[in-house]
Amino acid sequence: MLSSFISPSSIKVALESTEKEECFAELLEVLVAKNPELNRKEAMTALVAREEKMSTAVFPYVAVPHALCASAGDTLVAVGISRAGIEFDSPEPEKNPEHPLVNVIFEILFEEKDTETHLHVLRDILQLVSNPDFVKNLLQAQTSQEVYELIESME
């Protein structure tokens, strides 16, 4: 199901961002390129507000920033890879006081009517990242097409 929401053009294999909010904005541009009706300001405000509630670094090396966004029109997903890593807050600071570096980011925007689809997309992402080889293989991919094919093959 996840591969039906992404394409090679919604994947950025070399994120330039070094900070979390920069990363949100960089992936937001990927989404806007495919969905010009998406309101940047609304989306960015929603992503930052969601992240302030609780870190979206949900798995080692993986973050899934996601937010409700009325202008999304549908569930939108962008994938970004940072070889250097981007610092996110630890979701469980008492267990992991270090700030984890995140290399793989799945950014999701959805409308309220798409809550069920959003939950299915989150489930699919968690199933992928639970595979111990997924992140390692993803970081070896050189092109967005390779990333897309890897995601599609592991679904």
What would you say this structure looks like, in words?
- 40% of the residues lie in helices and 21% in strands.
- The protein has helices at 20-34, 40-53, 115-129, 134-140, 144-154, and strands spanning 11-12, 57-59, 62-63, 66-68, 76-87, 101-110.
- Strands 1, 2, 3, 4, 5 and 6 form a six-stranded mixed beta sheet that branches.
Straight-line N-to-C gap: 8 Å
Give me the count of strands.
6
Strand-pairing-aware structural class? alpha/beta
Mean pLDDT: 90
Spatial extent as radius of gyration = 14 Å
Low-pLDDT residue intervals, each spanning 5 or more residues:
none
User: What's the order of the H and E elements?
Assistant: EHHEEEEEHHH
- Describe the sheet with the most strands: 6 strands, mixed
Q: Please give the share of residues in helix.
A: 40-55%
Any idea what the shape is? globular
What's the tally of helices? 5
Strand fraction equals: 15-25%
